[in-house]
From TrEMBL:
It comes from Mucilaginibacter defluvii. InterPro entries: AB_hydrolase_1, AB_hydrolase_fold, AB_hydrolase_sf. The lineage of its organism: Bacteria, Pseudomonadati, Bacteroidota, Sphingobacteriia, Sphingobacteriales. Keywords: Hydrolase, Signal. This is Alpha/beta hydrolase. Residues 66-188 form the AB hydrolase-1 domain. PANTHER family: HYDROLASE, PUTATIVE (AFU_ORTHOLOGUE AFUA_2G14860)-RELATED, MONOACYLGLYCEROL LIPASE. Residues 1-19 form the signal peptide. Pfam families: Abhydrolase_1. One of its GO terms (molecular function) is hydrolase activity.
């Protein structure tokens, strides 16, 4: 019964998102987040910026533990609603940042770096008085979570990776593209192209609630400030290409769990590959066990028939597995 109620609440939130405006601000100012958003002032590359985050207290007796959620490249903290609700309902405090360049955080022209992002997230935890946390990273957030863990192993209770990208070194087989070249491609983004990409890459069967993700991720392209957003997106793609973490998995020294939808075939830069090259890479059925073997003592939880976003495609099963591994 509890699962049914949770699913109804999640669906209700997603449906309410259809009230979101057709034109979305590049800092999502006119997008409703599920919990109050605060801002951490930061200075980097000589600029005063702000990093958005949600700090959600437990809704039952606090267990004294904190979970930090790192979003993927095409998302922000808004898509963690069901995960936050479940964790806070079990006594966890949940901290959900929008990384610089994403969500409600500043869209600055800076040198984007997983090292820099890791330091800013450590600063956020320090500011909030959190000494240790479980770190859950999805997609690009998995790369960041890995870098964070390598830099601050004493802060990480456990590393949790949900369909992370970067399980292979993309520049070893994807032709190099500069930020300027990537920017030209990002400018072509439309709500229609975003939905087409999500349908092909993220979910095997489209459900109405997925339109919530498209409405935010796609309608930002209608903003007058979209060229800035597109350039920041290009700069963060450049970060992904140039700062792999896969060569350092063997250096991870904290307990690690991988939650992997086995039908995932994500390749950053896939459009620049021939069909023959595409077939050689992005195979999570192969990459997932290989990665689990590289990380000392890692546990792999596999989801046959599931693609890139398990916490949306199979929320009940994912959340049960997540709780069982905290």
């Amino acid at each position: 019964m509890k699962k049914f109620v949770l699913s109804l609440l999640f669906a209700a939130f997603c449906i309410s998102a259809f009230a979101q405006p057709d034109t979305v601000s590049i800092t999502l100012d006119n997008v409703a987040y599920p919990y109050p958003v605060k801002f951490l002032p930061v200075n980097t590359d000589g600029q005063d910026l702000r990093m958005a985050y949600m700090d959600v207290p437990p809704t039952v007796n606090a267990n004294g533990k904190t979970v930090m959620l790192f979003h993927g490249k095409n998302f922000g903290g808004y898509y963690w609603t069901n995960v936050i609700k479940t964790l806070t309902g079990k006594g966890y405090r949940v901290v959900v940042p929008d990384q610089l360049g994403f969500g409600k955080s500043s869209k600055a022209f800076i040198h984007y770096s997983f090292y820099k992002m890791a330091r800013l997230n450590k600063k956020l935890l320090d500011t909030l008085g959190v000494k240790k946390a479980y770190i859950l990273g999805h997609s690009m957030g998995g790369m960041l979570a890995t870098r964070f863990t390598l830099m601050y192993p004493g802060t990480v209770e456990k590393l949790l990776l949900e369909n992370p990208i970067g399980l292979e070194d993309y520049l070893s087989f994807v032709p190099y593209k500069s930020a300027e070249e990537l920017y030209k491609g990002e400018l072509k983004t439309t709500a229609e192209s975003v939905k087409k990409y999500y349908q092909a890459s993220y979910f095997d069967e489209w459900k109405p609630e997925y339109d919530y993700l498209v409405k935010i991720g796609g309608n930002v392209s209608k903003s007058a400030d979209f060229p800035r957003y597109a350039m920041v997106s290009a700069l963060t793609y450049e970060m992904i290409f140039e700062q792999p973490v896969c060569h350092e998995f063997g250096n991870v020294k904290v307990p690690t769990v991988l939650f992997i939808g086995l039908e995932d075939n994500t390749i950053v830069g896939k459009a620049y590959l021939s069909p023959q090259e595409q077939a050689k890479h992005g195979n999570y059925k192969k990459l997932a066990p290989e990665t689990a073997r590289k990380i000392p003592g890692a546990r792999l939880i596999s989801y046959p028939g599931v693609k890139h976003v398990p916490h949306w495609q199979i929320p009940d099963r994912f959340l049960k597995d997540l709780l069982n591994n905290l």
